[in-house]
Amino acid sequence: FRATLAAAPDAAEALYGLGMALAASGNIPTAERALRDSLVAQPLQPLAELQLASVLSAQGRWQESVAMLRAALVQHPGLPGAAALLAEAHTGLAGQIAAAAMVSRS
To answer: What is the DSSP code string of 3-27?
Structure first.
């Protein structure tokens, strides 16, 4: 991916592939940047949107993940895997809200 990106820094498919590889290797913040760059280069990529939402969830950024998934499902109804990831993000968000409520009561 890096060789393709050296020649064409805005190659959406290469940025997406790089983001996927980085996410798989656990380099989540850099994966997020590559996926966002891919979506800037070519908006409305359902798989890149789904992977970005997954990366956001992996960082505990549930609200952003929920927003990304809702927008993706509006643009791409029935996107495979999106409903399950949205349910996971909602669960994470609910847990985050509950934890914040417990802290504020302490």
So the answer is: HHHHH-TT-HHHHHHHHHHHHHTT-
For residue 7, give the amino acid letter: A
Phi, psi at 21, each rounded to 5°: -65, -40
- The Cα–Cα gap between 54 and 57 comes to 5
Q: In whole angstroms, what is the distance from residue 13 CA to residue 42 CA?
A: 9
pLDDT in tens, 29-68: 999 999 999 999 999 999 999 999 999 999 999 999 999 9
What whole-number distance in Å separates Cα of residue 54 and Cα of residue 23?
9
What 3-state DSSP class applies to 80? coil
Q: Are the CB atoms for 82 and 67 separated by under 8 Å?
A: no
What is d(CA 93, CA 32) in angstroms, rounded to the nearest whole number? 19
Q: Given the structure tokens 């997406």, which residue do they identify?
A: 16
Residue located via tokens 């029935």:
78
